[in-house]
Amino acid sequence: MPEIAPRLRDDVETLWNYHQLHHELRPADVGIGLGSHDLGVATCAAELYHRKLFPLIVFTGANAPTTVERFPRGEAVHYREHALALGVPDDVILIETEARNTGENITLTQKLLAHHDIRDAILITRPYQQRRAYATARKLWPEIDIRCASKPMPLDEYVNEIGDVERVITMLVGDTQRIRVYAERGFAVPQDVPPQVENAYERLVDAGYTSRLVH
Description:
By secondary structure, the protein is of the alpha/beta class. The protein contains eight helices and five strands. Helix 1 (6-19) crosses helix 7 (165-184), helix 4 (102-112) packs across helix 5 (130-140) and helix 5 (130-140) runs parallel beside helix 7. InterPro entries: Cell_Envelope_Assoc (IPR051599), DUF218 (IPR003848), Rossmann-like_a/b/a_fold (IPR014729). Residues 42-143 form the DUF218 domain.
């Protein structure tokens, strides 16, 4: 089982907790699963569908360098296949196969659903993508109510499922940087970054977890 080094644990947990919004879920018009390397997004979407939290699912995503090997037919396609295996009916799943970043996940899904009456949505993401996805959706699709969800699990269980400590930490660091940078660039609404989060981020950058930073 991969383990987080003790000297890093507090800072990694600080970022992990910051990015999860703990929204109280209520029924919505659609569940939107954002593509990534994490098949748990599709698992969570299927579970929420079976709980009758939405009647329609959109899976959105082409490929990124981190997903092309795992999902060669595209993120949305593989998510759909996984949801079907979990008992979700084919006729309630739409797929969007062109998006290559979170902004495109939102705008292309919005276009796909243009002829549906969408007033609220549940965004389903990796646990540490919730805050960034929410900030992006509030900027690009402000007219609907957005709540976020992820497959619930503690940090160590997630690291074990992904099987790569460095990937999880670098993604956490990258998403933390994007909260501020993307707001400054007009891609997302601003989010508060508490001092303890900023300090944890800086220490992990200093420790070398920089491969997912934007320049």
